[in-house]
From TrEMBL:
Transmembrane parts of this sequence: 42-61, 73-93, 114-133, 166-186, 198-216, 279-301, 331-353, 390-412, 418-437, 449-477, 489-510
Membrane-related topology note: Multi-pass membrane protein
Family of this protein: Belongs to the amino acid-polyamine-organocation (APC) superfamily. Amino acid/choline transporter (ACT) (TC 2.A.3.4) family.
MF terms in GO: gamma-aminobutyric acid transmembrane transporter activity; L-alanine transmembrane transporter activity; L-glutamate transmembrane transporter activity; L-lysine transmembrane transporter activity
Keyword Membrane included in the entry's annotation: yes
Keywords, alphabetical: Amino-acid transport, Membrane, Transmembrane, Transmembrane helix, Transport
Organism expressing this protein natively: Dendrobium chrysotoxum
Protein name stated in the entry: Amino-acid permease BAT1 homolog
Subcellular location: Membrane
Cellular component annotations (GO), alphabetically ordered: membrane
Length: 518
């Protein structure tokens, strides 16, 4: 009789809370507060993708390597293949809606024999990629604030204040602390800021899309925007195809981070449906909004070599110089351009905030499965049901990563390169297992690609393999210690560390995701 009553109680609980029941089936008890809607889940990914952040901070790369063609055509090319990655991730997310996300998927899809190793490699690439992502975003925000102050005090040619690397690092630390404080309170407040960030991104893009071309006294022709290829650069590369593929980094960097919808799934209602929707909608809308923003800004570009020169008013920060000159040419003052740059900086702030949120959930989930040193500390949640310890661990690691900027910006760029390559490797691994070892055993959730799942998955895996090679190529010739692309060293070094830790330690005790509920 007692057994029957317990069974009936479990059935009633499952009917009352299907999300909790599904999470129990996956092996975990509900510890985080689940109240996010599909719109709120979408807002997290949309805010961290933040095309206003990605394009604004990497526009120099697009102009230097190919110019308008690399920017506009490259955006469409990257969006096409990136869409396949997002769709494949959405399908797997629907089957396994857990905060651990990618590493949990790898464990389930690689089969019992390979599950621990697959989970270990995927998880560490994911978590380190996220730490590097936070470093990249918040450090870019600190640099943008430096440029705003420089222009506001007279510019590089007018005696403006140029902050030292120590001041920039201090500013960066301040942003990390603010993001940590906000992420330590109730997820309702974090969700509010993320929704505000999503709205800010949309409004900001359309405001700048209308304002910059409208204020510009001289505009580029459609032929320039869509067909001009900039082969002139100061990096010694002259092969057009080579230049073009290097220019794709701007678009690829701008479209990362949508695994946030996955890591927020244990706090999302109807996660097996709303999680995939958050991924797909954030990528689709970001693709459209980003392309509009990119085209409108490029219409205000005239002299590419001048925009990239370090002796212009913005110190070589191309998009800041575009904004500044547009208003200066029209009104005799570049104040309007500085305000526009400030608007973009606020979007970067929201992007960094969301990045920390995603970091903390991934850290919490990975620690919950015992994969990290002092795991019991990082998987604790406070009375607000927030993994506060995981939040501050992510911030501490991100700060340490930025310390490399004091020694060499080249070393720092190598560190943050993991934010793009490392993160996409983590995206590709579970998809690879889905189309190979898990092809027959995979049981899709409510969102399924059907017969297109295998094709889409292979396209996604091949694309990640291609960009991993392309973005590891030299970015300047002749190759010297100051021009060497350290990306393959950073990513390869990370892989060696992960594999070595497995061989010498983790293989003896790590068994992949651990059930914490019967």
């Amino acid at each position: 009789m007692k057994s029957n009553l317990e069974m009936e109680r479990k059935i009633d609980d499952a009917e009352a809370d299907p999300d909790k029941a599904r999470l129990s089936q996956l092996g975990y008890k509900q510890e985080l507060k689940r109240h996010l809607s599909m719109l709120e889940n979408f807002a997290f990914s949309f805010s961290i993708i933040s095309v206003l952040t990605g394009i604004t901070t990497t526009y120099n790369t697009g102009l230097r390597y190919g110019g308008p063609v690399s920017a506009t055509l490259g955006w469409l090319l990257v969006s096409l293949f990136n869409g396949c990655v997002a769709l494949s991730m959405a399908e797997i997310c629907s089957a396994y809606p857990t905060a651990g996300g990618l590493y949990y998927w790898s464990a389930k899809l690689a089969g019992h024999r390979w599950a621990p190793l697959a989970s270990w490699i995927t998880g560490w690439f994911n978590i380190v990629g996220q730490w590097a992502g936070t470093t990249s975003i918040d450090f870019s925000l600190a640099q943008m604030v430096q440029v705003i102050i420089l222009l506001s005090t007279g510019g590089a040619n007018g005696g403006g204040y140029l902050a030292s690397k120590y001041v920039v690092l201090g500013c960066y630390a301040a942003f990390l602390i603010i993001h940590g404080i906000i992420n330590s309170v109730s997820v309702k407040w974090v969700s509010f800021f993320c929704q505000l960030g999503a709205i800010w991104n949309v409004i900001g893009v359309f405001l700048l899309t209308i304002l910059i071309p409208a204020v510009a006294t001289k505009k580029a022709s459609p032929e320039f925007v869509f067909a001009h290829f900039n082969a002139e650069n100061d990096v010694g590369i002259h092969n057009k195809f080579y230049i073009f593929v290097l220019g794709l980094l701007m678009s690829q960097y701008s479209m990362g981070g949508y695994d946030t919808s996955v890591h927020m799934s244990e706090e999302t209602k109807n996660a097996d449906i709303n999680g995939p929707k958050g991924i797909i909608n954030s990528v689709a809308i970001s693709t459209i909004v980003g392309y509009i923003y990119l085209i409108s800004i490029t219409f205000a570009v005239r002299d590419i070599p001048y925009l990239l020169r370090s002796d212009n008013d913005a110190g070589g920060y191309a998009i800041a110089e575009v904004f500044f000159l547009v208003f200066k040419d029209r009104y005799g003052s570049g104040v309007g351009g500085i305000i526009c740059l400030g608007f973009a900086a606020i979007a970067v702030f929201f992007c960094g905030l969301t990045s920390v949120t995603s970091n903390s959930r991934m850290t919490y989930a990975f620690a919950r499965d015992g994969a990290m040193p002092f795991s019991s500390l990082w998987c604790k949640v406070n009375k607000e049901e927030v993994p506060r310890n995981a939040v501050w661990l992510a911030l501490a690691v991100s700060f340490c990563m930025a310390l490399t900027s004091l020694g060499s910006l080249v070393a720092f760029q190598a560190m943050v390169s993991i934010a793009t390559i490392g993160l996409y490797i983590a995206y590709a691994l579970p998809i690879f297992f889905r189309v190979t070892l898990g092809r027959q055993s995979f049981v899709p959730g409510p969102f399924s690609l059907g017969r297109w799942g295998i094709f889409c998955g292979w396209v996604a895996v091949i694309w990640v393999a291609v960009i991993t090679v392309l973005f590891s190529l030299p970015v300047a010739y002749p190759i010297k210690k100051d021009t060497l692309n350290y990306t393959p060293i950073a990513v390869g070094g990370l892989f060696i560390l992960i594999l070595s830790s497995w061989v010498f330690s983790a293989r003896h005790w790590f068994r992949g995701p651990i059930r914490n509920i019967q």
